[in-house]
């Protein structure tokens, strides 16, 4: 890619590229309804850029995992549903960015990379799904605490809950308890950015 996003670029500018939006009438919920309704402060835009990058990473991971076919019918269905969820999350966040006068990052703006062997076995795919979903949950919980715009907190928390559902499913596929911690750990924006950088070039 010629337009990779550095960590600094992720927080300070809008990447080039179009807005990938789902068709009107899909179940995008509160975030989609707010598109165009508000201009967000720079700190909130930084969180939205970070979260958009996590959704693009999630979509790339699940799309790649589906092609690798690591599971039987049930597991493949879980992968496809997770990919669908990531697409709806992305479209909602992209609408918010566009409504605030920013151009959302697209998959064409990011080089995704994964550790060697990440898609070579059922165990490898499941382990990486758990790692990524833990990152996604932490990033969203950190954003819920960190955004200045109060009206963003509930919809971001709703997405965090969905990512936690993904984490539960893949934890169980790994043979682990679906839930363990009573209080999931939020990630500060710098920590989430550092973790994301391992997969985004």
Descriptive account of the structure:
61% of the residues lie in helices and 0% in strands. The longest helix is centred in the first third of the chain and has 27 residues, at 42-68. α3 (42-68) runs antiparallel to α4 (73-99), α3 runs antiparallel to α5 and α5 runs antiparallel to α7. It is an all-alpha fold. The chain has a single domain, classed as Ferritin, core subunit, four-helix bundle (Ferritin), CATH 1.20.1260. It is built from seven helices and no strands. Mean pLDDT is 83; it is low at 1-5 and 7-28. It has helices at 7-12, 29-33, 42-68, 73-99, 122-146, 150-173, 189-197. The chain is globular.
Number of domains: 1
CATH superfamily membership, which one?
Ferritin, core subunit, four-helix bundle
How many helices? 7
Shape: globular
The CATH architecture: Up-down Bundle
Low-confidence runs of at least 5 consecutive residues:
1-5, 7-28
Largest β sheet strand count, sense and barrel closure: none
SS strand fraction: under 5%
Question: How would you summarize what this structure contains?
Answer:
By secondary structure, this protein is mainly alpha-helical. Helices cover about 60% and strands about 0% of the residues. The termini are close together.
Name the features:
single chain, 201 residues, mainly alpha, 61% helix
What is the secondary structure topology, with strand pairs?
Blueprint: H1 7-12, H2 29-33, H3 42-68, H4 73-99, H5 122-146, H6 150-173, H7 189-197
């Amino acid at each position: 890619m010629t337009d990779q996003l550095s960590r600094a670029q992720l927080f300070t500018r809008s990447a080039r590229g179009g807005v990938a939006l789902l068709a009107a009438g899909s179940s995008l919920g509160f975030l989609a309804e707010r598109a165009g309704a508000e201009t967000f402060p720079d700190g909130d835009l930084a969180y939205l850029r970070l979260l958009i990058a996590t959704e693009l990473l999630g979509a790339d991971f699940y799309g790649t995992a589906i092609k690798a076919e690591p599971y039987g019918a049930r597991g493949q269905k879980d992968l496809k549903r997770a990919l669908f969820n990531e697409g709806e999350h992305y479209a909602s966040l992209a609408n918010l960015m566009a409504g605030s006068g920013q151009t959302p990052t697209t998959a064409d703006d990011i080089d995704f990379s994964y550790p060697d062997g990440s898609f070579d076995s059922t165990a490898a795919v499941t382990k990486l799904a758990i790692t990524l979903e833990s990152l996604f949950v932490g990033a969203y919980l950190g954003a819920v605490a960190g955004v200045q715009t109060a009206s963003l907190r509930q919809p971001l928390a709703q997405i965090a809950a969905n990512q936690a559902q993904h984490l539960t499913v893949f934890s169980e596929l790994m043979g682990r308890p679906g839930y363990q911690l009573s209080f999931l750990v939020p990630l500060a924006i710098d920590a989430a950015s550092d973790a994301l950088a391992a997969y985004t070039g």
